[in-house]
Fold each of these.
Amino acid sequence: MDQGQGAGNLVERARQGDQEAWAALYTSVYARLVAFAHRRLGNADLARDAVSETMARAVTKIDAYVGEDEGFAPWLFGICRHVVVDIQRQTYRPLPPGLLRSDVDDPGPAEIVLDSEEQAQVRAAFARLDPDERELLELRVVGGLSSAEVAAALGKQPGTIRMAQMRALGRLRTFLEEASRVG
Amino acid sequence: MWVEGGDIHDELLDQLGGVLAPPEDLALDPTAAELDALAAAVAARWPDGAAGPSAAAAADAPGASPAPPESPIRPFRSGGRRHLRRLGSGAWRAGSVAAGLVLVSASAAAAANGGVPLPRPVRVVAYSVGLPVDSPALDDTNQHIKVLKDAVKAQDKPKAEATVRRLQTDLTKVPADEQKEAVPKVEAAIAVAADKGMIQSPAPTTATTMPPAPPTTATTEPAPSTTATTAEEKQKEKEKPAATTTTTEKTKSTEPEPTTTTTSPEGSGNPSGSSGDGGSIGTDPSATTTTTAPPDTTTTTSPPPEETTTTTTAPESTTTTTEPAPQPQSEPASVQANRRNLMAQR
């Protein structure tokens, strides 16, 4: 959150319907939300739609939000997660079996060619994680949220998130080790 | 791949950030259209603009830009249209029902005033809901009077005799309040037919039974009408020597309803049981007609009369009650009463 806009005040103004406060909140979190949505949806247009819908829902549900500016971005990410799931349901089209990818995070041929060997290994290892682990790390890395903010976005305790993150990174490291041995 | 030194998890996170980074062409700032959409959503959420002390203070603060004008973009989360649609749906529904009622009432009133003849189903429904239309039985009677007149004009004796019998059947179904209108017409038509020699002698037109009252009044006053009609019948029967009428009053003091059993020698006691649809019209002069017994009444059958003047075509004795379906005489009175109650409830 952009502290220069008046920390602790933007959300309160937004609750009163202040257009400028809403624009400031939107701008401050837009890039991270779009990156996260793009990561989940794999499409720039859908990602932008998801962020717009996230803000629309935030405007509608702002009265339900309890907190200050610090917790607003995690709250938005929590909304965005549901919006992304809704879009995934709406845009899901069954593909022929030959074209089905085992996982949305599997690297495609172009990505493999363009990536360095090390990045390819990390991408492949990341694809082997569980979906919950991937989402947690995406919120952490792509969304730029702290462990506490990820906990707020996912509705869990910060300690639980820290432990889950450690397990996910540990497994990721294991997968990378396996890949380096094979390579 | 080994990560050595420092917090290996932090380094992994950094490495993961490089891999999962969004493409460079992905926009990092909202476009003007997206900001307009947000402004429209905010304007829809707070139609009166920024409210509250904090917003007012923020708006008055130095350097604060004025609130942007309301976006022309229609908010896509507005519930107003949904309310309007729901309201419109209800209004349309109520309006349609009202228009239908007005239409039916107007057409029924026109028909009642002699304007347009109603189809029988419409008449049945209109009469059932209490609209001011003639009962279906009276309508049948009027139609059969026309048929009788036509038969007399055409010198069609069999048809005239059959129509006379059908008229007598119709009269048994005409409600009491309409019999004053129907009986003179039928008597006049039969008298004309008798004068022309189409039938042997004018048949008595006294209705021997009371048809079920209209549904709107059947549950309220079924007994008085029956009793009154029975008295009228007795009065009329005394005036008509051609008909032999035997009336049995209620058998016990505990039975509230009188039972009328009538035997007529000249075809008056052989209703077809149908609503004038040309059903069984064979007449057996010696047959007896048993009227429908009200609840808790006893139905008796009088012996056949000696005088028979109507030629019969059906060998079997035809016994018919005022119920829609002919009931055997052996049917218990309680069953008949239940059936009558069911009919009245409709």
Amino acid sequence: MTYIPHYATYDIKNELKMIRRFKKMKQLQSVILLAMIVLSGIDITHSMAGPSGKLVIFHAGSLSVPFAAMEKHFESKYPKLDILREAGGSTKMARMISEIGKTADIMASADYNVIDKSLIPSHASWNIRFASNQLVLCYTKKSQYASEINNTNWYNILTKKGVIWGHSDPNLDPCGYRSLMVLQLAEKYYKVPGLYDRLIANRPKRNIRPKSVELISLLQTGNMDYAWEYLSVAIQHKLQFIKLDDHINLGNYQLDSYYSQAKVNVSGKKPGTTLQRVGKSCTYGITLIKDAPNKKAAVTFLDYLLNPDGGLAILKNMGQPPFIPCRVPTNAMKEKLPEMLKHRVVVTD
Amino acid sequence: MKRHYDPFLIVSIISCVSVSLFILAPIIQLLLGPSWVIILESMRDPDIQKAIGLSLYTSGIAALIALIIGTPFAYLLARKSFFGKRVIEGIIDLPIVIPHPVIGIAILGIVGKQHWLGALLHRMGVYLMGTISGIVIVLTFVGMPFYINTVKNGFEAIPVRLENVSRSLGASFRSTFFRITLPLAFRSIIVGFIMCFARAISEFGAVVVVAYHPMTAPVLIYERFTSYGLKYSQPIAVLLILISLLLFIALRLISRKDINL
């Protein structure tokens, strides 16, 4: 007979007991888990009262800072909602929806024309103008001639050899073709024939970037001396900037007929073809995408954004003059708006 | 007799098939997407030729730089152990883990006038933003770890014994390296070169921050996609994939031949 020490048998018994207990615990766990799943299902149906889930917003790069502030504010109001923002050149973001078929709930463009041209009628049915902006020439303390530049000599400095200045790609970003329009209008306004060509001759292609916001890092790292940006972007990024006369800054919609003298060719539907953009004031447009997965949350957010005490106040604080109230061009378009938003807009061209 | 299948073997086969499909399905879709007419048309497009040419050229230079600078370094890491070696190995891997746009921003940070090095370069008239040299620097940065790691493993696989024999027979350190070690490591050097080249050719995020113009092929694909849509960006992607494939198969064949000598 082999000798089994007392403590060993005790251990085995204890272990068996533990195993049995563990098995029971597992059964209990699965019951609790099942209950939790059922309860969470009930919870989802309960929370249908306020907007919840994910809300996807595509917006122009120049709206990043105010939209981030709105996101924070709105999410604190509706904690069950998660706003997912994607920023980029407006034309590109519209293409993401119309060509790649990416799903989004809301699209906000730095040029309301982009929504009219590439989303209506198949991906959206209306377009609200909610804010304006203007172009400014940004620089830093370290930029060449930073101490001399002002709003009457800026174009002389931009034609100086060795001064590195740039703008965003006119084919991808409305800020890009608008920068070129400003230069054309400057030639007319200051009555300096040939100014536009001389300016462009001093701007090698490598100074062009896809998005205007990307130029900021070039300014801040000292790779570039001057860059064309929206006023809002300059204020949000605390850049130094030159504000131009209303006749050339594209910021005053009452001067739209003057702005229309500027014409820039951008890429068309096929490589090699072009499309003419005519000068117009910077007017931001926003729309609800037709097959928005979270329409309820989207409309609630739009109602908040278009509220003079909500999103519009944030825009105003960040250097982006909102339209109070916001505008749609026709009565027919106003009719197409969700009921909740109709009182937020007026009809005016 | 009943055949016995090991369940692990079955799982391995299933995973092999699903991984291959996972990689191939989107690429096949991409290759079948554009019609041959558009691909032929794209081959004649001077912008596309220039962009693909620039991609091959800058990636090739980057891989060459990695080869020249990286080989002695990889040898050192494979053969010697010294204080701080782990830290250095960690530093080499950094470019792999840093998000690509951050690499671009970091590089712009030291070549701009706000940094003393950038200020010096500007005074000498050297601009890296938006130039071919700038692109090469970015591509070398992202490709280097792939070269060094591959070649280091190659050197490690060569028995030290052979080097010792060579040296004991009177060969100098240098001639041992060039006549014994290097020929034996040739295959891994080619593989490292290919890895570095491939990594460089595919780089977009860091390049687009440093240079939008002149456009490399991935940047042109992005530009074409955003301004004209999918239809006109796909053919460039197809061309780039085909050219890279040919190139890499050719390089692999070269290395295969030599190992049989």
